[in-house]
Amino acid sequence: MSYQKEKAMLRELAKEAAGIAALPLQEDRRALWRGLNGLRPQRPMVMIDQVCWNEMDCDGFLRARCENPELRSYEEELRRKLFQWKHFPGDMVIEPYIKVPKAIRNSGYGLGSQEQTLAGDPLNDVISHKYIDILQNDGDLEKITVPSVSLDAAETARRMDVAHDLFDGILGVHAAGAELFVKPWDAISTYKGVESALYALVDDPDFMHRVVAKMMLSFTSMLDQLEAQGLLCDARLQTLIHCTGAYTSELPAPGYDPEKPRCKDLWIPGLAQMFSAVSAAMHQEFELDYVKPIFERFGLVYYGCCEPLDRKLDIVTQVPNLRKVSMSPWTQAERGAEGLGGRFVFSSKPNPAYLAHGAFDEELIRKELTGIKAACDRHGCPLELILKDISTVRYEPKRLFRWAEIAMEVAMS
């Protein structure tokens, strides 16, 4: 297919997206997210993300037609957005613009990883990893370097020119800067392997302190460079934070300059998933004490992911600028809601495995969601229901469609 034909097809998809983005419902949804994130919720909010798209194409709509890789990426983005809006929207918001990633060059941490992988489905990018320990001593530690960050202005301009040519007159086009995640232990786990890293916390704690200190030194330098060069995300474009709505009346901070976003204008998410197996004291010592200076710089913080935090809320709730706390499927809703109360958003992660069972059990899903909502209602805890990490629906996309309907019924009840 020629460039002009691919462009014409993209513009038709963009027109459909623009029509949806113009609906008054979009601003109603933004207002609901602002209320939740301001701890003044009207009701629980529902979001679905990290979908097994390889299993979703029930009608051929999701099949990409573009051969040009750059245009194909925009096509996939638009097709997925339109498909989700039709079949499992929850409280998603469709914005009237396209975000074009700035070409930010980053030299990285200097240390790669060695791994073995196992894919259960060759069409699914969710695969199993076994990492080899390549970070065993101070000599290995020296291989971790401070990243060098810079903007490739010419490539950024080229990307913007392409996007303007494709979408002008239909959707806005905005250059998008870096959105960061504070997760040093995710990186460390790829260098040492999860099991080796956990054993080392006990067997060689001094070395592990040097490891995480080095990682945070490198991360902080990278953050400083991004902020100084104006390469952080424009706060007005930060509509999602770790799969949830980021709309808020509190950001950006006063004095905001969109040409040079500051940390304090933005949300930042953080997590330590491999610390699911460590004590609260160890979590504080090896994670929170190190990431606290980063969180102090940002406007709002979302903390946690898959790690169960309901037994660690006495330390987690001391995170600076904290607003949302992840409550994974392995938490007890009552304990989590009681610990958070009305001070923070209970970011519930319902169990995606329920969509992968041999038989799809609607009542099991409804029982889980109503139980979470009831616990939050009892303790006056703002709630969002965030279904993510969906690795399979057994090639039955209607399971996900029905989950979204049930979740909205629960949220509206």
Radius of gyration over alpha carbons?
A: 22 Å
Number of helices: 13
**Number of E-type strands:** 14
The spatial strand order of the largest sheet comes to 1-14-13-12-11-10
Please state the average pLDDT score: 96
Description of the structure:
There is one protein chain. By secondary structure, this protein is of the alpha/beta class. It has one domain: TIM Barrel (Alpha-Beta Barrel), CATH 3.20.20. It is built from 13 helices and 14 strands. It has helices spanning 3-21, 24-37, 69-87, 138-141, 153-167, 184-192, 194-203, 205-228, 280-295, 313-316, 333-340, 362-378, 398-412, and strands at 45-48, 97-101, 104-106, 115-118, 128-131, 149-151, 172-176, 240-241, 244-245, 267-270, 300-303, 322-327, 345-348, 383-387. Strands 1-14-13-12-11-10 form a six-stranded parallel β-sheet, sandwiched between helices. Strand 13 (345-348), helix 12 and strand 14 (383-387) form a beta-alpha-beta unit. Helix 12 (362-378) runs parallel beside helix 13.
Task: Please give a handful of descriptors for the protein shown.
413 residues; alpha/beta; TIM Barrel; globular
Summarize, please.
With 413 residues, this protein is α/β, with parallel strands linked by helices. It contains 13 helices and 14 strands.
Describe how the helices and strands are arranged.
Blueprint: H1 3-21, H2 24-37, E1 45-48, H3 69-87, E2 97-101, E3 104-106, E4 115-118, E5 128-131, H4 138-141, E6 149-151, H5 153-167, E7 172-176, H6 184-192, H7 194-203, H8 205-228, E8 240-241, E9 244-245, E10 267-270, H9 280-295, E11 300-303, H10 313-316, E12 322-327, H11 333-340, E13 345-348, H12 362-378, E14 383-387, H13 398-412
Parallel strand pairs: 1-14, 2-7, 10-11, 11-12, 12-13, 13-14
Antiparallel strand pairs: 3-6, 4-5, 8-9
Helix pairs in contact: 1-3, 6-7, 7-8, 8-9, 11-12, 12-13
